[in-house]
Write a structure and sequence with these properties.
Mean pLDDT: 89
CATH superfamily of the largest domain: SOR catalytic domain
Order of helices and strands: HEEEEEEEEEEEEEEEEEE
Low-confidence stretches: 1-23
Helix content: under 10%
Structural class: mainly beta
Strand content: over 45%
Radius of gyration: 34 Å
Number of domains: 2
Length: 232
């Protein structure tokens, strides 16, 4: 081959563009998707789907930190464990956040180190009923024609609205019952005392005590009934 021809081929090869090897973009956008956006307090779990982009292209193997700011309806902040990891080959990072048990709202923030952040908001609806317990009288017995105080303990993560106390029994040839109510004033953990006037002339009768509670979201629950015997 003539020297002139070899020189032309060499110049042509030098003029060809070189392939881009190992060229990556810096992250410039973070997208956050939540499922569901409205959560039941009975479940308390939120799925977070994060996508990291660089110049509109998904970025794999990118570190992501997910944090939560969460406040209940009473204005109290609740700490939720964060999540962290790296995006997969599609530029996505998935995490599950748990412990969202209070009626309220929050914001999820996904952050890429030295890069952008993405946010999304969620709401938690209170579907958790209160928990009630009746403290039975000593030996599950009461004396007839006496004034007895019955204690009902109630707890709720948001607060209690009201508690109903009821007694019922068959005596003097008929079914008898009575109910009273106490407003609990939003207490999250309280014990209420109900005055019960035990009827006269019903010695040996069995009477059942009931308690029903309602929280500030309208959820209701009943205590385990207590059976007592009336003695002279």
């Amino acid at each position: 081959m003539h020297c002139a021809l070899r020189m032309k081929l060499r110049l042509l090869l030098l003029a060809l563009p070189l392939p881009l090897i190992g060229c990556t973009s810096d992250p410039n956008d973070v997208m956050v998707q939540l499922s569901p956006e409205v959560i039941s307090s009975l479940d308390g779990t939120l799925s977070v789907h994060t996508i990291v982009l660089g110049d509109r292209d998904p970025l794999p193997d990118t570190a992501v930190d997910v944090t939560v700011a969460y406040t209940d309806r009473n204005g109290t902040d609740h700490a939720i464990a964060p999540a962290s990891g790296k995006t997969d080959k599609t530029g996505a990072f998935d995490a599950a956040l748990t412990g969202l048990m209070w009626d309220g709202t929050g914001t999820v923030t996904a952050t890429v180190a030295g890069g952008p952040t993405g946010t999304a908001t969620f709401a938690v609806l209170d579907r958790t009923p209160p928990v009630l317990t009746i403290t039975p009288p000593a030996n599950n017995q009461v004396r007839m024609n006496t004034d007895v105080k019955i204690s009902v303990h109630i707890t709720d993560e948001i607060g209690t609205s009201q508690v109903f106390f009821e007694w019922s029994g068959n005596f003097n040839g008929q079914f008898n019952r009575d109910r009273s109510t106490i407003i609990a004033s939003g207490s999250a953990d309280t014990t209420l005392s109900f005055d019960w006037q035990v009827p006269d002339n019903i010695a040996g009768t069995t009477i059942t005590l009931y308690a029903l509670g309602e929280d500030l979201s309208g959820n209701q629950a009943a205590a385990q009934p207590v059976t007592v015997t009336v003695v002279p």
